[in-house]
């Protein structure tokens, strides 16, 4: 089922064939570092490099007998070479030298794709934010109208949040993308540290300064926790679009193609299905953080409880995160923004969104905050419980008129003044 969410480049990284190519790449790199020019001649190594092919069918036959994938892999390769050359394969190594290092390569390639998708989404966010920099709408807290903002400012907050995710990713990559070629329990009993350094530098990987039989799983746990954080941000963005698309608000609309159908029963329905999908998949990614954390505590130098778990949570989390980034970008590009509805909705509360402005103006004229708050709240209750407009209630109140002139009241109800610092905020966000 996960294949539905996986683009071809990501599918290749986590395919069995992709994994085995890395296994072979690492095996050859170790042989090249350790033996070339010593016990193994240039021509013998070239023969090894030229003749070795990955035969998945033969490997499966051998694995059915050995019940050990790495042994089956090495035996499959060894069958293709004479004994005097094949004996150098996997010499002094343990399975995790190959597997953990290969997995680091897979994570590295996946994160590069992820970074590209994140940058593409940021670019789309920047463009949309600039376009709606001064598109007025009402801000809401607790689901209740609060004060005017701009739609571009809302998008700028998403852009800034993604920027933090980019920074986090750059910081965690050196900790996460690490391999090891240190033998059965990390002591280099069958291989030397120089070989490890040479191989990992060639592969473009960090090396674990201290390893056991494996690279410790706090690294993978950090990555999956990061992906859970990223997924939660994408859910925040998608959930906001879903809320703003509610019929009662109708301020934005997820793209809907002409022949698309929203409901099998109700032909009028245009549902925010992609945003809903993103919100649902975020739960899956966050759910993977718990087993990733539990993979950290293994017996002694290693047990096998982590292996089956990470074969699922690691590729699935990376694949889904990559997919969610791409789909949210599509949503953003095709998003219909109803500026007229945003302006219309600002009038729903009949001017109550300007209550703080009145409060501040009254305190500036010498009223205590407590007295000013009580007065403004009393006027607000007149609006909530009757048909009167807040501006009208304010103008009719003698207590307000004692402190504020008509021209000053006009300034209180000026929507544009709420956006006077938007330029400044955009510059701080790098927009």
């Amino acid at each position: 089922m996960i294949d539905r969410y996986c683009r071809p480049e990501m599918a290749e990284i986590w395919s069995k064939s992709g994994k085995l190519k890395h296994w072979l790449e690492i095996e050859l790199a170790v042989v090249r570092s350790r033996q070339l020019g010593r016990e193994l001649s240039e021509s013998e190594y070239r023969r090894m490099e030229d003749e070795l092919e990955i035969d998945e069918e033969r490997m499966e036959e051998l694995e059915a007998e050995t019940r050990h994938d790495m042994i089956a892999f090495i035996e499959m390769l060894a069958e293709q070479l004479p004994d005097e050359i094949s004996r150098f394969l996997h010499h002094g190594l343990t399975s995790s030298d190959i597997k953990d290092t290969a997995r680091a390569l897979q994570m590295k390639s996946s994160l590069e794709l992820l970074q590209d998708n994140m940058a593409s989404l940021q670019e789309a966010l920047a463009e949309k934010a600039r376009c709606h920099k001064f598109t007025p709408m009402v801000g809401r807290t607790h689901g209740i109208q609060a004060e005017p903002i701009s739609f571009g400012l809302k998008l700028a907050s998403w852009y800034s949040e993604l920027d933090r995710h980019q920074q986090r990713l750059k910081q965690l990559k050196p900790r996460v993308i690490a391999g090891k070629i240190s033998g059965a329990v990390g002591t280099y009993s069958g291989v030397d540290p120089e070989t490890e350094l040479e191989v990992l530098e060639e592969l473009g990987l960090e090396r674990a300064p201290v390893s056991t039989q494996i690279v410790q799983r706090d690294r993978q746990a950090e990555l999956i926790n990061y992906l859970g954080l990223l997924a939660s941000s994408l859910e925040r963005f998608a959930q906001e679009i879903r809320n703003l698309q509610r019929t009662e608000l109708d301020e934005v609309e997820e793209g809907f193609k002409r022949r698309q159908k929203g409901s099998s029963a109700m032909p009028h329905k245009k549902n925010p299905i992609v945003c809903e999908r993103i919100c649902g998949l975020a739960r899956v990614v966050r759910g993977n953080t718990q087993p990733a954390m539990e993979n950290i505590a293994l017996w002694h130098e290693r047990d096998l409880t982590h292996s089956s778990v990470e074969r699922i949570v690691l590729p699935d989390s990376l694949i889904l995160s990559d997919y969610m980034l791409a789909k949210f970008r599509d949503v953003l590009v095709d998003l219909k923004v109803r500026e007229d509805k945003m302006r219309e909705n600002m009038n729903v509360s009949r001017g109550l969104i300007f209550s703080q402005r009145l409060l501040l103006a009254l305190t500036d004229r010498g009223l205590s905050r407590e007295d000013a708050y009580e007065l403004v709240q009393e006027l607000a209750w007149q609006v909530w419980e009757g048909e009167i407009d807040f501006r009208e209630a304010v103008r009719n109140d003698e207590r307000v008129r004692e402190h504020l002139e008509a021209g000053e009241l006009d300034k209180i109800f000026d929507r544009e003044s709420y956006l006077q610092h938007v330029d400044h905020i955009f510059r701080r966000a790098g927009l």
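The chain has a mean pLDDT of 94. The CA atoms of residues 92 and 190 lie 4 Å apart.
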